[in-house]
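User:
Note these tokens:
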Amino acid sequence: MTDPVLAHKTDFGRMYSRSTSELPSVPSITTVISQAPSDLGGWFSHMAATAMAQDHRLADAAGNPAKLRALAKEASSAAERYRDAAALRGDRVHFYCEQVALHALGRTHRLAEAREALKANGEEAFAARFDEWWETYGVEPVEPEITVWNAEVGYAGTMDLVAKIGGRLCLIDFKTKGTDRNGQVKAMDDKVVMQLVAGMKAQESLVDATAGSWEPWEYGDDPVLLGVAIGETEVRPMRANPEVLRYHWYKFCALRRVWDLQLQVSDAGRALLPIGPPVRQPAVQSAAG
């Protein structure tokens, strides 16, 4: 994930402000999408079990409960470690993609630095495959890393790249993906369509972050929406099906309302209150008594 200047980490997820001198006021596109339920319990368990099974200290710990507990505790965080490492790798790959676009546009860039960072982490294959895709598809960059805003629905985000390919305007979102056992890049999640359609439906794009100046969004008129999976063995671009875009947009708008309700729930106060036993009424004696 990139780190746009107007994006902020908050207790309510990633949010955007209108300028560098203002507080964040709307959620990011990815924060809205994250409101959809996602069951990762199986994956977390698999990562923990795999880490435990592959730990060279396991044989020595067998029969020693204290050592086994220590190994299990360490293995339980395997999914988080993998996720964090993948996020850093994704940042490096995205940075490289941005620098390629800036270089092609004749703007100030740090392409050599970005390539060296990938090489230093054994990830240069991602750059090589990306370069091949860029050349094969004849990508003509228009604007990389462009921040957009929709005031009507209330969200903002940053598109990885606006470009022309084969004469068509494209909105592009890059996804850094691993490789499966067949040597192919792993498939992207369908949620990328929500991300792309939200970008397409933007109303403004950022001109100057410090001044807080914006202009009407000029790239939302029937662009091709591309999710581009970047792997070490190949790059696989996938087009969002135009027939399903409206449904993904409706879902995105519904999730935006969910985010709002979550905010209201958080501000409403305690959901559960303690309650004691009922006060017992004294027994009433009869007149005969």
